[in-house]
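Sharing in case it's useful to others searching the archive later.

Someone asked me privately for the predicted structure of Glutamine--fructose-6-phosphate aminotransferase [isomerizing], so I'm posting the question and my answer publicly. Question first, with the sequence:
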Amino acid sequence: EEIEKGGFEHFMLKEIYEQPKSIRDTMRGRLLVDEGVIRMAGVWDHQEKFLKAKRIIIVACGTSYHAGLVAEYLIEDLARIPVEVEYASEFRYRNPIIGKRDIVIAISQSGETADTLAALKLAKEKGAFIFGVNNVVGSSIARITDAGAYTHAGPEIGVASTKAFTAQLTILSLMAIKLGKHNGNLSAEKFNALTRELDAIPELVQHTLETTAEKVIEIAERYKDSPNALYLGRGYNYPSALEGALKLKEISYIHAEGYPAAEMKHGPIALIDENMPVVIIATKTGHYEKVVSNAQEIKARSGQIIAIVNQGDQEVRKIADYVIEIPNSSEEFSPILAAIPLQLLSYYIAVKLGKNVDQPRNLAKSVTVE
Ligand code: G6P
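And my answer, the predicted structure tokens:
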């Protein structure tokens, strides 16, 4: 096992640091930047289905569900196809309306999650085209789907998903860009700009790992004994807030909630006082000014602000207790970069609390019972 960990203390840390490679592996052979092509046979062989789709429904659980929420922004923005994202466990029991022109995409690292598998079977019975985004080759979901695209993140051992999540975001970005190109919603210029940027994301992830870890360790030390934490984000980074909170809960057992920043005033704001750390994702693209004003509301109530910002940010720095800088990117790819310090923060808090990071209590890597 020590050999498998490759010098890292835990699988989770190893997997966090593997992300420049796992993202690159997921794009390999698919993203051909100089030729202006995205190759995805699973989509291309069924282009009729995708180009005529009325709606895409994404079903998933846990972290994969959060990747699905980012995909909703990606696909609606870039390809203008309506998307719904559902917890597989809810979808399967609510007599959903599904038609022949619907595409149901299951996102699952393991490809074995019982609820996701059952949701797909239901969609298939109702005549939808079913598509899998899985990491484990030959898994149950991969076997029953009409088509799919594997994330090539490599085996993920840590129960809390890290590299599988960013690989899912990578695949879903490729899909959204490809669909947008072929259904005429993305100009050649925008296609080229996005693909060039995505191609460089592994280096930016590497840079993020190198430049944020030290600061994150300091923040982990400061807040490790807090009983609660709130995570806020908007737009593409609203799912990032949910995922950040999930990571913290899973491995440190600290109660954490992720919320859309603007929704804070309808409840969570009541919890804010000097003992409440609030992690806020305030990247420059998207709804920056709005998030800044949400941060001001937190500060006015003496909340502790840990802000994830872009390099060179000036505004948030004035009000935040801690800032973590991530590289500048288009909004579309900011959840990949924001995921890195969020993963590291949960990891270091859990380690400092002496928790079993790779195998947290009560959780399983693959949930094959409902
Ligand atoms: C479990 C794991 C999570 C994972 C979820 C969905 O709860 O602990 O890390 O996100 O299942 O798993 P899947 O394999 O379907 O992505």
